[in-house]
Amino acid sequence: MLLEFSVGNFLSFRERKTLNLVASSISDFKETNTIASERHILLKGAVIYGANASGKSNFIRAMSTMKRIVMLSFNQSSTKALGVTPFLLNTETEKSPSYFEVLFEILGTRYRYGFEVTDKEVVGEWLYESKKNVEKFLFLREKDGIEVSPSFKEAENLESKTRDNALFLSVIDQFNGVIAKRIMNWFNSFITISGLTHENYELVTFKMLGKENTAKTLGSFYDQLDLGFEGLSIDKEKFSPKRIPEDAPESLVKLLVKDLEGAFRFKIKTLHKKYDKDNKKVGDVEFDMRSQESAGTNKVINISGPIFDVLQDGGVLVIDELDSSLHPLMTLAITRLFNSEKDNSKNAQLIFTTHDTNLFSYGKYRRDQIYFVEKDKYGTSDLYSLVEYREEDGIKVRKDRSFESDYIQGRYGAVPYIGDISKIISEWQEK
To answer: Which CATH number fits domain 2-189+314-408: 3.30.420, 2.60.40, 1.10.3470, 3.40.50?
Structure first.
């Protein structure tokens, strides 16, 4: 389970900012929105608000970047760039390393793992373990070398096998280190997806629809959302060179045939009732989901696989722009799955960005689950929670406030400043 995620000097985040999922002392929705682990009371997730271009997506990208570096570090070549971009709007940070750190719990043991990287190399890396209250280091990597704790036997004599652009953790994992494997498995269940380019996740959904138990769960969810169809069917079609356009360049045809040989294409159909002139059912009609169903229906089906996969196995699901193309009630239905004891028995956590202010009123989120991202005049993004926010008189925000109304009015920041639009229009019309 995730306790904290921190990032610094990455894209629009100049200073270190932390998303904290350790529950504060407030009593809001304690029974439904918190998890009692062996050591902590944790939150089942967080919702992040902010204006366009405030840095919300950059924070999500920081999470996906950290996971990508962890999972792919060992397999890349010594010349491969790490793909990180520091805060470029300041001379002090543009050539400094980016910072990533997670604090998480596995089977009652808390780990703190992080690293500092430039696009070319790992500048620092660390792993700490805490089984009770005292935190002890397992390894500490700096520019001049790697120090391994005498108690961390699985990492012994692996320092010289670590490239400048590879993580020491991934090297230990490749040599079957028990703790390293445990941590890599945790990162494997740390899923980040985009609510805008959701087509990439449809294969997870198709796989789950192909299994009887998970197909029934997904079908029930689609029925609750009233998506307008009676059922689904999935066909698996083998790739055929005949599908390549006749006017395609010969070099491209050869490349596609080589790359796609043995590959499959999935076709998903939705089933709709057909009626006669007296509105009596006379049969069914199949629609091609991709071309004949709405963008919202396509999105719900595409992301439902990752959602229920995490709910089924546990883990952390991060979604950027969850509400894009979705009706507010659909967004609400998805978020409520994670705050349900029945649907979320494995204590999965959901973190997402949104512009849907209805969730302030109907989402039943605690103040420590609501986060804001705001960018200042120097292009730097800030991240803060509603429970941290203080009124002008220094008083905390009370739970009986109208959060939605306050947010729209700019009370908590993280909203766009929109000038006098009517003046702009009148000036344009006069030209």
So the answer is: 3.40.50
Question: Under DSSP, is residue 56 helix (H, G, I), strand (E, B) or coil?
Answer: helix
Query: For residue 130, which phi and psi values (nearest 5 degrees)?
Result: -140, 110
CA–CA separation, 171 and 153 (whole Å):
14
Q: Are 218 and 309 in contact (CB under 8 A)?
A: no
pTM to 2 decimals? 0.88
Per-residue pLDDT of the chain (431 residues; tens, 9 = 90+): 999 999 999 999 999 999 999 999 999 999 999 999 888 999 999 999 999 999 999 999 999 999 999 999 888 888 899 999 999 999 999 999 999 999 999 999 999 999 999 999 999 999 999 998 889 999 999 988 999 999 999 999 999 999 999 999 999 999 999 999 999 999 999 999 987 877 778 888 888 888 888 888 998 999 888 888 888 887 776 656 665 566 656 655 566 555 555 556 677 889 999 999 999 999 999 898 888 888 888 899 989 999 999 999 999 999 999 998 888 899 999 999 998 888 999 999 999 999 999 998 888 999 999 999 999 999 999 999 999 887 766 677 877 777 888 888 887 887 765 555 455 555 655 65
Q: What are the start and end residues of each CATH 3.40.50 domain in the chain?
A: 2-189+314-408
In 3D space, the residue among 30, 40, 316, 369 whose CA is nearest the CA of residue 191 turns out to be 316
Extended beta strands in 331-407, E state: 349-353, 370-375, 381-385
Question: CA neighbours within 13 Å on the CB side: how many for 374?
Answer: 17
As a whole number of angstroms, the distance between CA 177 and CA 170 comes to 10
Tokens matching residue 144: 């001049």
Give me the long-range contacts of 340-347 (CB less than 8 A, separation at least 24): 340/32, 341/32, 343/311, 344/44, 344/311, 346/311, 346/312, 346/313, 346/314, 347/1, 347/35, 347/42, 347/44, 347/314
For β-strands 190-194 and 316-320, DSSP reports them as parallel
Where would I find the H helices in 26-145? 30-33, 56-72
